Amino acid sequence: MAARVLELHHWATRVGPGLLGGGVFRAPELPSGRPAGLPRGRLLELAGGADASRTTAAAQVLLESQREGDPVAWIARAAGAEGAVYPPDLAAVGLDLEALLFVEVPASAGPAATAKATEVLLRTGAFGALAVDLAGAAPPRGDAWLGRLATLARDKDCRCVFLTGEDGASLGPLIATRLRARRRRLRPGRFALHAEILKDKTGCLPELPGPTRYRGPEGMP
After folding, report:
1. For residue range 130-157, what is the model confidence (pLDDT) as tens digits?
2. Which of 2, 67, 70, 81 has the smallest number of Cβ neighbours within 10 A?
3. Domains and their CATH numbers in the chain
């Protein structure tokens, strides 16, 4: 695992804003009056069950940063794990894969490896947002790891959003905003997405950016 982290660090330190994918990507603008989105430079937590469209909600956070001209990254669990994310699914939501770094952490590496990969990417200052999948996995012990990541997120002006499960307490007191994703069926193949604020220390009443209604995957009831 150490070799993997070093390789990632060597690659990431050579990436600067506008270099990932050969240029700065700007997604289409949303109509005026859209939600203000989530604050930059903070640790955010997005809780929800496997059927709550947590991935869709996190993708909208990354898409907001792409609209601002920043590359983004997704730190995922190994393929084959329950709830694992695949890049084509993110493209279907609207993310530009040319401006997305997808990092897969082996299940055998343990929770500390996910935290380390997050720290490495934050230190580069190259990303406007990171999505870190911790759903179904025990986070590292203590709050020291969150303290390092909170400082880096603030210094690098990056949204760092952790995906966690439906049950359980917040990852820790350094999480600035904690939301719970909710999905409501509208009709076959269509659903509405909204987020309930569980905790907010920013005072800005954060909301998920982007649309609230989506077309589900093929075969969705």
Report:
1. 999 988 777 888 899 999 999 999 999 9
2. 2
3. 40-215 (3.40.50.300)
> How many Å apart are CA 54 and CA 72, to the nearest integer?
17
Q: How far apart are CA 115 and CA 215, in angstroms?
A: 33
**Overall residue count recorded for the chain in this entry:** 221
Beta bridge partners of 147: none
Q: Looking at this protein, which amino acid is placed at residue 16? A: G
- How far apart, in whole angstroms, are the C-alpha atoms of residue 172 and residue 160? 14
166 residue type, one letter:
E
**194 phi and psi angles, rounded to 5 deg:** -145, 165
Contacts of 72 (CB under 8 A, 6+ apart): 62, 65, 66, 95, 99, 100, 101, 127, 128, 129, 130, 131
Least confidently predicted of 63-72, 91-100, 122-131, 151-160: 91-100
Please identify which residue in the block is written with the tokens 């530009």.
96
CA angle 133, 61, 146 (to 5 degrees): 50
Q: What is the pLDDT of residue 15?
A: 39
**3-state SS assignment for residue 62:** helix
Q: Interior CA angle at 29 toward 126 and 157, to 5°?
A: 25
Which ranges of the chain does DSSP label H, i.e. alpha helix?
2-12, 54-67, 87-93, 111-124, 144-156
pLDDT digit string (tens) for 160-194?
Answer: 999 998 777 889 999 999 988 877 776 676 667 77
What's the pLDDT score for residue 155? 97
